[in-house]
């Protein structure tokens, strides 16, 4: 009988292959974890910035369309005709917009990073607001806004209320 030898992998070769496979699997697992973390961070920032731009655009449109800007407590009142008054006020972590249609919109801008200030006219004691200064801090960056209302002379000098 011929002396035949079976061809097979040695135990050493199998151990080397298992070690290399586990190293590659570990690297892939870490890369997926890093990618997943970056995606969540980017998705959260993108959602926040979308809220930021939507809020800014809505306030800008409302200020352009209003006749007067006044302050009622901590709220900003943008008044047009009787049927077109819009209110902006802050909640716990949201900016709310109560529209003239009776709708209540909210913008998820974190209250801790939100500052706003209503700028009044110095020459008059009327409740008109000349501008609206707002800044939002997100991811250690500050996004300032300044909205200025251009009034007709009749409104400024009290001929029209």
TrEMBL record:
A Pfam short name: N_methyl
Provenance organism: Chitinophaga flava
Protein name stated in the entry: Prepilin-type cleavage/methylation domain-containing protein
Transmembrane segments: 12-35
Keyword Transmembrane: yes
Record key words, sorted: Membrane, Transmembrane, Transmembrane helix
Listed InterPro entries: N_methyl_site
